[in-house]
Amino acid sequence: MFGANNQSINQYKKVSIETGVAAANPVELIVMLYDGAIVACYSAIPYVKKNDYSNKSECIFKAIRIVQSGLRMSLNREVGGEMTTNLDALYIYMTNLLIKANIENRTEPIEEVIRLLTELRGAWEAISKTEAANVRTAANSASSANDIAYLEKV
Predict the structure, then answer these.
(1) Which of 4, 59, 90, 143 is deepest in the core (most CB within 10 A)?
(2) Model-level pTM?
């Protein structure tokens, strides 16, 4: 009885995520990657505490995949300069912490990664809001210019 309901909920979540990804700009996608890595890290902590090695490893490796294949691979090394180099080093550091947490079955390294990811996510979210405000300003300016051009024709 509940299995079918859970399956429907999971399908809805999948569609919701896919829709969000399709509608997101590049900065919003980065924020989504941070969200995914943070959730994976938080999910691992109870498994570490319960010594559930299989589920702990699954969550930790999900976080590692997001950091390595998502965040690290999205770095633009040709344009980013020193900031890209620093972020790359930080992502490698986070990956090493997660590997350490998995091997030693400890929560402290995971908690440090969560702290770092959360701080970086906040910075990217601020960029996203600034970018959205700039787009709205540009759209309003274009609309105003069109209105003025129309009025001048009349």
Answers:
(1) 59
(2) 0.73
